[in-house]
């Protein structure tokens, strides 16, 4: 069976969540079954395993609705895409699409790196539910990354297709000696974008009330946003890394008091798993997906409540509390591996590819 994976969402330069989701799954899938990758830029190969690949048009191209015309020339049995927007008109193969979250229905500001015409379409797309239903129902099966998002998809009745949870995981950032001891100082780490729904303002205000703590903001940031956050709470000790390599990120995270996140909505939360694998506690906003990932290991605070966030962070200083949460975090993170997710995904792809092949054979022999 020929399995093709859409790797066109792998970021050139710095990985983001969907980029890592793609690369992590492809590497593990390839250990179990031959894989062909679809790319739209040869530079994407820097973030992908050494596997057979084919070059097709970009997912942000005006040709995307008809990309199946290019893909079907490869004669795949089934194609897996880490997004839900892959064009499907004219396909002759099984198709599995992925819906990571429903964040942009409430927070309609699109990612800033998209072309202008795509940003306009993005906003229009998220004004109603029917475009999402139309795309998902053109697939043979749908994947999402968490039980939380699966519940939302079912509640909104977004697809009639089988829905499978394939969890995210984290890349290998090191193997610390466990159990760990609480590090010196009060280093807090935030890894994520600066979109409004991420709640970074809440973190900055919380740190401003904790004079012995500093907040390390790891992601790339614009000069305007840097100035805004600095003015928001001048007394807060902020360290801007403006983008960090995996090695730099792992080093900062391994010596941190906690990873902190104040997001109002997420589809998963890879940084939580990254921190927990290293035995670094997480202090996060109390939203369903973080409850699903962090469980009893995480410390929670209400969304938009900077004072409560500061109290939760300070709570790690209680005798034995940091060590307890560190040990619990490492145990909780062990549930999320690319290996386990790839096993589940391969089972689904073989099922869809087999069913599609049988249907095509039946049509040819009528």
Give an overview of the whole structure.
With 366 residues, the protein is an alpha/beta fold. The protein folds into 2 domains: 3-168 and 337-364, Rossmann fold; 187-333, Rossmann fold (3-Layer(aba) Sandwich). The protein contains 13 helices and 13 strands. It has helices at residues 17-29, 68-71, 116-125, 130-137, 147-155, 200-208, 223-232, 246-254, 270-277, 288-294, 306-314, 321-333, 338-364, and strands at residues 3-6, 35-39, 53-55, 78-80, 94-98, 141-144, 163-165, 187-190, 214-217, 238-240, 258-261, 282-285, 299-301. The strands form 2 sheets. The chain has a 7-stranded parallel sheet with strand order 3-2-1-4-5-6-7. It has a 6-stranded parallel sheet with strand order 10-9-8-11-12-13. Helix 1 crosses helix 13, helix 6 crosses helix 11 and helix 9 packs across helix 12 (321-333). The protein is globular, with a radius of gyration of 21 Å. This is Glycosyltransferase family 1 protein. Keywords: Glycosyltransferase, Transferase. Residues 187-323 form the Glycosyl transferase family domain. Residues 16-169 form the Glycosyltransferase subfamily 4-like N-terminal domain.
């Amino acid at each position: 069976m020929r399995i093709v994976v859409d790797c066109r969402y792998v970021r050139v330069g710095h990985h983001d969540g969907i980029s890592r989701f793609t690369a992590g799954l492809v590497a593990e899938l390839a250990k179990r079954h031959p894989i062909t990758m679809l790319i739209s830029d040869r530079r994407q190969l820097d973030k992908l395993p050494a596997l057979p690949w084919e070059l097709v048009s970009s997912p942000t191209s005006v040709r995307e609705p008809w990309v199946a015309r290019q893909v079907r020339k490869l004669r795949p049995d089934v194609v897996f895409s880490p997004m839900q927007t892959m064009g499907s008109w004219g396909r002759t193969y099984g198709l599995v699409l992925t819906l990571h979250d429903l964040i942009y229905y409430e927070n309609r500001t699109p990612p800033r790196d998209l072309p202008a015409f795509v940003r306009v379409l993005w906003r229009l797309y998220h004004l109603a539910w029917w475009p999402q239903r139309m795309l998902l129902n053109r697939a043979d099966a749908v994947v999402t990354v968490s039980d939380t998002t699966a519940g939302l998809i079912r509640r909104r009745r977004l697809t009639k297709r089988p829905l499978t949870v394939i969890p995210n995981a984290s890349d290998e950032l090191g193997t610390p000696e466990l159990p760990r001891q609480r590090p010196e100082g009060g280093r807090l780490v935030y890894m994520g974008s600066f979109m409004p729904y991420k709640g970074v303002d809440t973190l900055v205000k919380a740190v401003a009330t904790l004079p012995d703590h500093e907040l390390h903001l790891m992601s790339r940031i614009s000069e305007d946003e840097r100035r805004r956050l600095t003015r928001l709470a001048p007394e807060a000790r902020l360290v801007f890394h403006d983008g960090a390599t995996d090695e730099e990120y792992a080093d900062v995270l391994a010596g941190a008091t906690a990873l902190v996140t104040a997001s109002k909505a997420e589809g998963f939360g890879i940084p939580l798993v990254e921190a927990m694998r290293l035995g670094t506690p997480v202090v996060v906003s109390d939203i369903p997906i973080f409850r699903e990932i962090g469980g009893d290991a995480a410390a929670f605070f209400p969304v938009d409540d900077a004072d409560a966030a500061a109290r939760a962070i300070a709570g790690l200083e209680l005798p034995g509390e940091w060590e307890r949460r560190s040990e619990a975090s490492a145990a909780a993170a062990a549930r999320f591996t690319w290996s386990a997710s790839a096993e589940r995904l391969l089972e689904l792809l073989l099922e869809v590819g087999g069913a599609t092949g049988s249907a095509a054979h039946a049509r040819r022999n009528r």
